[in-house]
Design brief:
- The longest helix is centred in the first third of the chain and has 39 residues, at 14-52.
- With 308 residues, the chain is an all-alpha fold.
- A two-stranded antiparallel ribbon has the order 1-2.
- It is built from 13 helices and 2 strands; from the N terminus they run αααααααααααααββ.
- The chain has helices spanning 2-12, 14-52, 55-67, 73-93, 95-133, 139-145, 147-159, 161-182, 185-207, 210-215, 221-232, 236-260, 266-289; strands at 293-296, 299-301.
- The radius of gyration is 23 Å and the shape is elongated.
- The protein has one domain.
- Helix content is 83%, strand content 2%.
- Helix 3 runs antiparallel to helix 4 (73-93).
- The protein starts with a helix and ends in a 7-residue tail after the last strand.
Length: 308
Amino acid sequence: MPFKNACNILLSRYSITFKLIIYYTLVVAIFLVIAFCILQPIWGEVWTEITNTNFFAHISDSIDKFLDGDSSYLTAIQEASQAFINIKEILLHNNSKVIWTIVTLALVSIVAVYVVNLSNLSYSDIINHFMNSNSRYGFASNFIANLKQSALYSLLYMVTKMLVNVLIMALGAFITYQITKLTNVILALNVSIIVSLVLFTLSAFLFGGWVPAIVVDRIPVHKALAAGIHTLKKLPISCLMSFFMVHFIGFIAMAAATVFTFGFGFFIAYPAVIMLVKTTELVLYYSAKGYNYYVADGKVVDKPVANG
């Protein structure tokens, strides 16, 4: 039921969903341009050497031949393998540039994630106003009004929740690598995905009441995490089931959007999944507190989930 109500709320406020997708897209585009401007002078000549290996052409050729049923696709794969070896040699001869690139991309990514997360508090606050009074608030005005709190929240998020997420993904990669050595990559990926989903669910349960405590009960950012944990632990089963469902469906949606759109769909699916997670957090928080809330115009949930 919490998951269903979260979906209904998300559909009721679909306009804010589009605004958040635009915000995410603009932030990513701006920081990609910044990274390109920094790295292009460094990688101009090296990139020319890499393209001269014809690696990408060989890959495209092998795919085309494979789809056409041409047995010579194996030859194209061998040529691509040799080109890849040549690329590794080029990178080894330019290791200082590789290190500088990794550092640059890491720093740009950290700042980009920080800016993206500035919107989380505003989105949750807008949904909170809808849930408690059926009110409509604009994203831009709410973003500015909450900017001070959002700046602190985003900073604390980076050193807590974001760090936990990175560790979970690293663990998933480690499990995949270790199991692949014993069996096969398909089994390894399946085990890794299941373990990661369980860990992301536990992480969501731990941090899921943080933002709702800020926007619903106006608890200061640095105290809201503890208050959120205290609130959500009243509904452990409902929270764990809801968060697992959200992360499972979110993973499927992002994977499908990425594969079937050659990666472009990820930039729409990812913010949509984040918004679903944030809406689910609010629904569970309201339920744990026993608060009534709107799920659509004129439709109020007045029997929150029972404690337990």
